[in-house]
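Review form for a predicted model. The reviewer records the input and the model, then writes brief findings.
Reviewer: anonymous (R2)
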Amino acid sequence: MAKRRIARIAVIAAIVLAITGGVWRGRVPIGAVLFGFYGAYLDVQKELSFTRKSQRATMAQCLREFAEQHHWLEGTQINKGDPGLPPCVRGLEINGIYIEHDYVALSFGNAFRLMELRAFRPGITGYGTKKLADGFWYYAD
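Model under review:
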Protein backbone atom coordinates (compact mmCIF):
# COMPACT_ATOMS: atom_id res chain seq x y z
CA MET A 1 0.00 0.00 0.00
CA ALA A 2 2.86 2.38 0.81
CA LYS A 3 4.47 1.79 -2.61
CA ARG A 4 1.23 2.64 -4.36
CA ARG A 5 0.83 5.85 -2.34
CA ILE A 6 4.43 6.91 -3.06
CA ALA A 7 3.97 6.23 -6.78
CA ARG A 8 0.77 8.30 -6.90
CA ILE A 9 2.39 11.20 -5.05
CA ALA A 10 5.39 11.11 -7.42
CA VAL A 11 3.16 11.20 -10.49
CA ILE A 12 1.03 14.03 -9.11
CA ALA A 13 4.12 16.03 -8.13
CA ALA A 14 5.61 15.57 -11.61
CA ILE A 15 2.41 16.72 -13.28
CA VAL A 16 2.12 19.79 -11.05
CA LEU A 17 5.76 20.75 -11.64
CA ALA A 18 5.46 20.20 -15.37
CA ILE A 19 2.26 22.24 -15.68
CA THR A 20 3.50 25.15 -13.56
CA GLY A 21 6.89 25.17 -15.22
CA GLY A 22 8.90 24.18 -12.16
CA VAL A 23 12.60 23.78 -12.83
CA TRP A 24 12.04 22.47 -16.38
CA ARG A 25 10.51 25.58 -17.99
CA GLY A 26 12.14 26.04 -21.36
CA ARG A 27 14.73 23.29 -20.87
CA VAL A 28 12.96 19.94 -21.28
CA PRO A 29 9.75 19.25 -23.21
CA ILE A 30 6.93 18.76 -20.70
CA GLY A 31 5.57 15.74 -22.60
CA ALA A 32 8.88 13.88 -22.25
CA VAL A 33 8.96 14.47 -18.50
CA LEU A 34 5.38 13.31 -18.04
CA PHE A 35 5.97 10.26 -20.23
CA GLY A 36 8.98 9.22 -18.11
CA PHE A 37 7.18 9.58 -14.80
CA TYR A 38 4.06 7.85 -16.08
CA GLY A 39 6.15 4.92 -17.34
CA ALA A 40 7.72 4.52 -13.90
CA TYR A 41 4.26 4.69 -12.33
CA LEU A 42 2.99 1.92 -14.62
CA ASP A 43 5.97 -0.29 -13.75
CA VAL A 44 5.18 0.05 -10.04
CA GLN A 45 1.50 -0.75 -10.67
CA LYS A 46 2.37 -3.86 -12.70
CA GLU A 47 4.80 -4.93 -9.98
CA LEU A 48 2.12 -4.59 -7.30
CA SER A 49 -0.54 -6.45 -9.27
CA PHE A 50 1.67 -9.52 -9.72
CA THR A 51 2.70 -9.76 -6.10
CA ARG A 52 -0.69 -10.03 -4.40
CA LYS A 53 -0.68 -12.68 -1.68
CA SER A 54 -3.88 -14.31 -2.84
CA GLN A 55 -2.40 -15.26 -6.22
CA ARG A 56 1.03 -16.51 -5.15
CA ALA A 57 0.40 -20.18 -4.34
CA THR A 58 -1.88 -20.69 -7.34
CA MET A 59 0.54 -19.07 -9.77
CA ALA A 60 3.54 -21.00 -8.42
CA GLN A 61 1.70 -24.32 -8.71
CA CYS A 62 0.49 -23.48 -12.23
CA LEU A 63 4.03 -22.64 -13.41
CA ARG A 64 5.49 -25.79 -11.87
CA GLU A 65 2.83 -27.95 -13.53
CA PHE A 66 3.62 -26.27 -16.85
CA ALA A 67 7.33 -27.06 -16.41
CA GLU A 68 6.50 -30.67 -15.47
CA GLN A 69 4.49 -31.06 -18.69
CA HIS A 70 7.62 -29.98 -20.58
CA HIS A 71 9.87 -32.23 -18.41
CA TRP A 72 11.79 -29.19 -17.10
CA LEU A 73 13.51 -29.03 -20.49
CA GLU A 74 15.93 -26.11 -20.29
CA GLY A 75 15.47 -23.57 -23.07
CA THR A 76 11.74 -24.22 -23.56
CA GLN A 77 10.09 -20.95 -24.50
CA ILE A 78 6.38 -20.20 -24.93
CA ASN A 79 5.49 -16.70 -26.14
CA LYS A 80 2.40 -14.75 -25.16
CA GLY A 81 0.29 -15.57 -28.23
CA ASP A 82 0.99 -19.29 -28.16
CA PRO A 83 -2.02 -21.59 -27.59
CA GLY A 84 0.20 -23.74 -25.33
CA LEU A 85 0.09 -21.16 -22.54
CA PRO A 86 -1.39 -22.50 -19.30
CA PRO A 87 -4.90 -21.16 -18.54
CA CYS A 88 -3.75 -19.36 -15.39
CA VAL A 89 -1.61 -16.88 -17.37
CA ARG A 90 -3.65 -16.35 -20.55
CA GLY A 91 -5.34 -13.16 -19.35
CA LEU A 92 -2.13 -11.54 -18.10
CA GLU A 93 0.04 -9.09 -20.01
CA ILE A 94 3.17 -11.23 -20.25
CA ASN A 95 6.02 -11.68 -22.70
CA GLY A 96 6.24 -15.42 -22.26
CA ILE A 97 7.24 -18.36 -20.11
CA TYR A 98 10.82 -19.64 -20.05
CA ILE A 99 12.07 -22.85 -18.48
CA GLU A 100 15.59 -22.86 -17.05
CA HIS A 101 17.46 -25.67 -15.31
CA ASP A 102 16.00 -25.16 -11.82
CA TYR A 103 13.15 -22.68 -12.32
CA VAL A 104 10.37 -21.64 -14.66
CA ALA A 105 9.99 -17.89 -15.26
CA LEU A 106 6.93 -15.89 -16.18
CA SER A 107 8.34 -12.81 -17.90
CA PHE A 108 6.41 -9.53 -17.91
CA GLY A 109 9.07 -6.86 -18.26
CA ASN A 110 9.85 -4.57 -21.16
CA ALA A 111 12.90 -3.47 -23.13
CA PHE A 112 14.12 -1.32 -20.25
CA ARG A 113 13.34 -3.52 -17.26
CA LEU A 114 13.40 -7.26 -16.67
CA MET A 115 10.59 -8.46 -14.37
CA GLU A 116 9.82 -12.12 -13.75
CA LEU A 117 7.99 -14.43 -11.42
CA ARG A 118 10.17 -17.49 -10.84
CA ALA A 119 8.84 -20.79 -9.54
CA PHE A 120 11.72 -23.06 -8.55
CA ARG A 121 11.68 -26.84 -8.65
CA PRO A 122 10.18 -28.41 -5.53
CA GLY A 123 12.76 -28.53 -2.76
CA ILE A 124 14.85 -25.61 -4.09
CA THR A 125 14.74 -22.45 -1.95
CA GLY A 126 15.46 -20.14 -4.88
CA TYR A 127 16.58 -16.52 -5.13
CA GLY A 128 15.37 -13.20 -6.48
CA THR A 129 14.42 -9.66 -5.54
CA LYS A 130 11.50 -10.53 -3.25
CA LYS A 131 10.40 -13.86 -1.81
CA LEU A 132 6.69 -14.36 -2.43
CA ALA A 133 6.31 -17.91 -1.10
CA ASP A 134 8.42 -21.04 -0.62
CA GLY A 135 10.32 -21.50 -3.88
CA PHE A 136 8.44 -18.64 -5.56
CA TRP A 137 10.24 -15.36 -6.17
CA TYR A 138 9.72 -11.99 -7.82
CA TYR A 139 12.82 -10.96 -9.79
CA ALA A 140 13.50 -7.46 -11.18
CA ASP A 141 16.60 -6.08 -12.81
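Findings: The chain has a mean pLDDT of 78.
Further findings: Strands lie at 77-79, 96-99, 103-107, 115-120, 130-133, 136-140.
Recommendation: see findings above.
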